[in-house]
Structures are given as C-alpha cells and as structure tokens.
Amino acid sequence: MAEQKTLLRALAGETLATPPVWMMRQAGRYLPEYRATRAQAGDFLSLCYNPELAAEVTLQPIRKYEFDASILFADILLLPQALGADVWFVTGEGPRLSTVTSMDDFNQLKPVDEIDAVLNPIYETLKILKSELPKETTLIGFAGAPWTVATYMIAGRGTPDQGPAHALRQTDVATFDALIDLITDGTIAYLKKQIEAGAEVIKLFDSWAGSLQDVAFVKYSLNPIAKIIAALKAAHPTVPVIAFPREAGEAYKGFAKAVGADCLAIDTKVDAAWAVEHLQKDSCVQGNLDPRLLVTGGDQLVSETKRIKEAFSGGPHIFNLGHGITPDADPDNVHRMVDAIRN
User: Fold this and answer.
1) What is the overall mean pLDDT for the chain?
2) Res. 282: pLDDT tops 80
3) What is the DSSP track for 179-226?
4) Which secondary structure element, helix H or strand E, spans residue 143, and what is its range?
5) Sorting pLDDT into bands at 50, 70 and 90, what band is 3?
6) What are the phi and psi torsion angles at 264 (to 5°)?
7) Per-residue pLDDT band at 92 (split at 50, 70, 90)
8) Residue 282 appears among annotated catalytic residues
9) Is the pLDDT of residue 185 over 50?
10) Rounded-to-integer distance, Cα 185 and Cα 149, Å
11) 252 catalytic, yes or no?
C-alpha cells in the first residue's frame, strides 16, 4: 500500500497528473472542531502532550478534506523544553522561553539522552495515528531546524529580525555553536524516534533561514540540516525528507542536493517559473499558494491554485501553501482549493 500513496510517489520523483495536497498547520484554529478540542485539553502544551487529543486534532482535517498527508500535531519548541528550557504560551502573543545567552545558561540544559522523558507522548501520538489514518494517507513527522529553534531559545520568544540570535552568534561563537550542535544532535534523536513510531516522511522547518546570509546561511542553516538528513538516511534510508529553508531566495538553488533532501518546500515569494527552472530539476518541489487566499477566497483563490498546479505539472510536485494556514482562514475556502486541484 505504501507504494500507492501519492505523496510518497511524488517524493520518489514521479510526476503525477494530480499532485498530492496537504497544508502546513492544517490542524489549527481556523477549524471549529480544533478549537473545541483545544478547549477540552485546557491549553496548547497540554494538547501537544495528550496523545489521544493530539491524534484527534491531527485527524480532523483528514476527515474534512481528505488530504494526501497528515502532519503530526506538535510544536518545534517541544525539543527545547525536552532539553531543559522553560516553555509556555501567552494567549494571543505566542511562545515564551527561558533564554540561553551565555555558556552558563547553556550548561544548565540537559543532555540529548534525556529528551525522551519529555517527548514520549509525541511518539505515542504517532503510534495512534499510524493505526487510525486512512491507508492512503501519508504520516509526516517534523522538527524545527537548529537555526530557527536556536532563535527562540536565545530570544525567549519570536522576534521580527532574529536580532538576539544574530548578536550571540557574532559575539559569543562558543556558546552559539554549542547550542546549534546540541539542537542538531537532539533533533536527530527526536526524528529517529518519530520514524520508529510510524512517521513515513520527515519535514524540517527552518522558518527563519531567510535572515541568514552567505557564509552564515551555509554554516547555520544548510550544514546542520545536511547533518540531520545524513544521520536520518543512515538509519532509515527509505524515509524521504522535505526541507523548508523559508525565504532563502537565491539560496534555494542547489539546497536540496546540498542537504540530501528529497523535496524542497518554497515560500510564497518564489516565482513558480523560476522554481521550475532552478529547483524542480533537482528534487520534488512543495508549495506555494499564498495563505491569504484562503481568507479572501473567490475566483482568485481558484485561479491561483490552478496556476500553481499547472506551473509545476512537468515534474514532481506537492501542492501546499507557502506558509502555514492562518487562524482567520475560511474552512470553506480550503474545500475550494482542494476541488480546484483535484477536479
């Protein structure tokens, strides 16, 4: 049955008449059923660590839209929490963390071999999903890439320019590099366990890759992702990996080959014709509808969906958004998008 799954076929390099489709953040606040389940859990982190409820919200968009893939419901900041950072979420504002800004702070973190004490519920969620997902639906596991995770651990929150992380990498290289190395090793261990629990595909989100330039981009985005993928491929050579160095611009070129990824996810700023010329020749491409169209809907949503599908129709393509679906999206517009792809 695995060979029949359209997402795995695209990741293997097959060009399909109808591309597989799923959405980043497809289990989320735009769905009333998600909001009800989150209220039942009590708060966001409690939902992440409750395997039954986390599996339920993961399954909700599959039941509703019959997406070709289901992505584990979790958060990239669970790994920092497992490494010993304090993590909490402020309603309406997002995540907060205790900060790592010195070697003394770094030395308070836990070793990689202790992370499973926190992350075991995540593996249980995957095991539930493996048994409950439709047979044709691919199960995706994921993690944040080291640079992006480090930006949160250093600043203690999301920042518009990742300024605190840039400052630390420039003024305290020893601490910054130690943190990147720890996150990289932790991510390898975490994703190996996700695969053992049932994940068929892995996605690495480097959401803030675009704020790195030139040598820093190679050192702190490309190289850690390459190390993670090499370790995963050594242990699980048949499991495909999707890499998403968001807003990498020209640095998207050659990225998939350089890191060993089977697919390159692209953001909304990437021109489809450029991506076909420079990226699709190297790997499957995933993307890249503007999430705002799922808010506004209308004829533009349908025409843009069809345009992207047609643009990438000459090679392996996974239809997705250029970033996660937003809480103000209209669930009916998701139906319109899927209909435009499949019909």
Assistant:
1) 97
2) yes
3) HHHHHHHHHHHHHHHHHHHT-SEEEEEETTGGG--HHHHIIIIIHHHH
4) strand 138-144
5) low
6) -115, 120
7) confident
8) no
9) yes
10) 13
11) no
- Residue 83: C-alpha distances to residues 102, 111, 302, 331 (Å): 16, 7, 44, 36
Rounded Cα–Cα distance for residues 217 and 213 (Å) = 5
25: its two tokens? 């953040």
CA distance from start to end of the chain: 24
> Is 152 tagged catalytic?
yes
Query: Taking 70 as the threshold, does the pLDDT of residue 2 lie above it?
Result: no
| 191-246 pLDDT, tens digit each | 999 999 999 999 999 999 999 999 999 999 999 999 999 999 999 999 999 999 99
Q: At 30, is the secondary structure helix, strand, or coil? A: coil
Query: Tokens standing for 209?
Result: 């890759």
Q: Which residues have CB under 8 Å from 328's CB, separation 6+?
A: 30, 295
Catalytic residue among 152, 190, 220, 252: 152
29 is catalytic: yes
Choice among 29, 35, 157, 292 that is catalytic: 29
Which of 9, 49, 65, 75 is an active site residue?
75
Peptide bond into 343 cis (omega under 30): no
Look-up of token digits 């419901």: 73
Structure tokens at 220: 């702190």
Encoded amino acid at 251, one letter: A
- Token pair 């390159």 is found at 264
The answer to whether 177 is a known catalytic residue is no
Phi and psi angles of residue 111, each rounded to the nearest 5 degrees, phi first: -70, 160
